[in-house]
TrEMBL record:
The organism's place on the tree of life at top rank: Bacteria
Record bears the keyword RNA-binding: no
Domain HTH hxlR-type span(s) in chain numbering: 15-112
Natural source organism: Streptomyces toyocaensis
UniProt keyword Hydrolase present: no
InterPro entries to which the protein is assigned, alphabetical: ArsR-like_HTH, HTH_HxlR, WH-like_DNA-bd_sf, WH_DNA-bd_sf
Protein name: Transcriptional regulator
Length: 112
């Protein structure tokens, strides 16, 4: 018999934090959110330079996932050469606002 550590809702999420962590989980997603907040409407290469250490594969994968989750918008401009820009959706902006207290906590912990 399997023992459950916590009750499970029909959609697999226990609470709002569980749902949010699915969207922002991992090392890079919150940093991508921050970069797009600080530098809106960025191209892929610009984002990569803003996030030293991230690989192209991971950035591309996370951007696709974040677009599917509705927090990042991808706009392809009909130009030669092709130009694609990424920005935050309204949901992505609200998510960043929700993360601000966590960022403040981290800044306090780092300095004090």
């Amino acid at each position: 018999m399997t023992t459950l550590n916590r009750p499970c809702a029909p959609d697999g999420h226990v609470c709002g934090i569980d749902t949010a962590m699915e969207v922002i989980g991992g090392k890079w997603k919150v940093l991508i959110l921050w970069a797009l907040h600080e530098h809106p409407h960025r191209r892929f290469g610009e984002l990569r330079r803003l996030l030293p250490g991230i690989t192209e594969k991971v950035l591309a994968s996370h951007l696709r996932e974040m677009e599917a989750d509705g927090v990042v918008r991808r706009v392809s401009h009909d130009e030669v050469p092709p130009r694609v820009e990424y920005s935050l959706t309204d949901a992505g902006k609200r998510l960043n606002e929700a993360l601000e207290p966590l960022a403040a906590w981290g800044r306090e912990r780092r300095t004090g």
